[in-house]
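Could you help me review a protein record that somebody else here produced? This is what I was given.
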Amino acid sequence: MAITKIYKGTNDVTSSFLKAYKGETEIYTSTQPIPTDCVLFQSPSSFTLKVYDNTKHWDGTLYYSTDTTTWNVWSGTTTLSSVGNKLYLRGIGNTVITGADNPNYKWVLEGSNIECIGNIENLLDYETVALGNHPAMAAYCYSYMFSGCTGLTSAPSLPATTLANYCYSGMFNGCTGLTSAPRLPATTLASSCYRYMFAYCRGLTTVPELPATTLAGSCYYYMFAYCTGLTTVPELPATTLAYRCYYYMFNGCTALKVSTTKEGSYQYAWRIPTNGTGTTATDWNYLMLYNTGGTFKGSPTIDTTYYVENPPV
């Protein structure tokens, strides 16, 4: 079930908060407003942000600020430093931020306990977001954006409902400091859109809801591979599957346990699809549960109930 964030009063998400996962609520209280027209990076200590190859890869303009009053164009060739342990960014006229299946185009955060707060779409076009719309994404929009940022502890919101090919591919790959994933409300998927998105995020223990009912080729390909702390699976409501859609999706998730029978700690039903009858595709399930920690580790069968240790999300 999805988690809805409710911000109580003002908030900078640095203070304590209450999470009620199955109650669909996260309540935060704090002292500073969350910006709505930009993305905020913040940490208890100073940090820097740069592009790995010191090159601009976005196709419009990005601005940065340390006070939300003075905004400067970021060329991508310089390293940005936080002031007061905060850094704000927003964009105009962008359809991509990284724009290629190339980890050398990633952003590099140097520091610890860094939160990225706000709507990621503000990096594309904050004026479009202000009007209540979703800026268009091109292929590889955020591909590998935060790959290897081990100091990142909080991900921005990803509210897009229609995705582009490879748009989130590898976006948080290797972000070992992440303990929870952002909501993924998209219902119109695209080829490889979530490919390797959270691979090697060893701090993740649960997953976001995956509401799409029609999948795209390789859409969840290796999505949570090697997330060794993962103990919960998502419900998978899609009835129209696609080529390699669940290919190695949970490969190497050693804490995740699945069984073919309801016994012992395996008390919660998990089925593909959640309800109804599924339409399969080539290699849709190939080694989906390979190297997981339960009694069943392999390629699940369509329209078959399995059992897991925790309620599916």
